[in-house]
Specification:
With 202 residues, the protein is mainly alpha-helical. It has eight helices and five strands, in the order αααααβαβββαβα. A hairpin with a 4-residue loop joins β3 and β4. The two termini are 32 Å apart.
C-alpha cells in the first residue's frame, strides 16, 4: 500500500489528464462534475470517520490509562482505529484490555473498571450530510450512546419539482426523532449557542 500510494501521489495529475483524453468531449463536463461531487462526498465521509476513530481512541486510551492499565493507551488507540467496523473496536478493546488486566493485576476489580470504560454512555452530536454518512448514524442510534442532535446541510432543491428535500442524514435523524440543526455556517453564533445547550461529550 505505501508503494502504491507513493506512485499515485507522484503520477496523479498525469493519470487524470490521460483519463480526460479518453473521454468523449461532449461528456467531459458531466463526468468531471460527477467525479468532483463523488470526491467531495467520499472526502467528507472519510474525514468524519477518521474524526470518530480518533475520538474513540482517545476516550478508550485515557480511560484505560486512568484505571491503571500499562498497555491502556496502546489498546485504546488500536480499538479506536478499528472502530470503522461497527462493534469491532469495542470487541477488540474489551477482549484485549481484559486479557492485559488479568496478566497485570489479576483481580476482578480492575476487570470491572475496564468494562466500565467501554460501557460509558456518551452524549453525541453527529455531523454529516451525504448517503455514506447514514450507516454511521444508524449504528450510533442503535448503540448505547445518546445522539443529542444531528448537524447537516439545510434542505436543498431536488427532483423535477425542485422541492426542498432534507439531506440523507437529516431525513434519518428526523425519522428517529433526533433534533436536526441546519446552520448556514459553522461560525453562526446561534448555532454555537445551540451546541453549548446540548453539552455533548463528542
Amino acid at each position: 500500500v505505501p508503494v502504491l500510494t507513493f506512485y499515485f501521489l507522484r503520477d496523479w495529475d498525469v493519470m487524470i489528464a490521460q483519463i480526460r483524453d479518453l473521454l468523449p468531449r461532449p461528456y467531459l463536463p458531466t463526468v468531471s462534475r460527477l467525479a468532483k461531487e463523488s470526491d467531495a462526498v467520499l472526502g467528507s465521509f472519510l474525514r468524519g470517520q477518521f474524526s470518530v476513530m480518533i475520538s474513540l481512541g482517545t476516550i478508550y486510551a485515557v480511560g484505560l490509562w486512568a484505571v491503571g492499565l500499562d498497555l491502556g493507551p496502546l489498546i485504546g488507540f488500536v480499538a479506536g482505529m478499528v472502530s470503522f467496523v461497527p462493534y469491532l473496536g469495542a470487541f477488540v478493546g474489551v477482549s484485549s484490555a481484559i486479557l492485559a488486566t488479568l496478566v497485570q493485576h489479576g483481580d476482578l476489580l480492575h476487570v470491572g473498571l475496564v468494562l466500565t470504560v467501554f460501557a460509558l454512555l456518551l452524549r453525541i452530536v453527529y455531523a454529516g450530510t451525504p448517503e455514506p454518512a447514514v450507516p454511521s448514524l444508524s449504528a450510533l442510534l442503535e448503540s448505547r450512546h445518546e445522539v443529542l442532535a444531528v448537524v447537516t446541510r439545510p434542505p436543498a432543491p431536488k427532483g423535477r419539482g425542485r422541492s426542498l428535500q432534507p439531506s440523507p442524514v437529516g431525513a434519518l435523524a428526523a425519522e428517529a426523532g433526533v433534533p436536526v440543526l441546519t446552520p448556514r455556517s459553522a461560525k453562526d453564533p446561534d448555532f454555537a449557542d445551540r451546541l453549548r445547550e446540548f453539552r455533548p461529550d463528542a
